Amino acid sequence: MQFTTVGREIWRGARQAQRLAEANASDPEVQERLRKLRLVKALRESKKSWKEIQDLVGISRATYHRWQKALKEKGLAGLKPRSRRPKHLRTKVHWTPGLLIRIETLRKENPTWGRWSIWLTLRKEGFQMSERTVGRILAYLEKHRRIESVAGYLARTQRGKLKRRVNRPYAKRKPRGYEARAPGDLVQVDTLTLTLGPGSMVKHFSAIDLHSRFVLAEVHSRATAKLSEGFLSLLLARAPFPIRAIQVDGGSEFMAEFEEACCALGIALFVLPPRSPKLNGHVERMQRTFKEEFYTRAFAHPAQRAAGRAGYLPGLLQPPKASHGPGGSCSAGVFG
Question: Where is the Integrase catalytic domain (predicted)?
Answer without folding.
Answer: 179-336
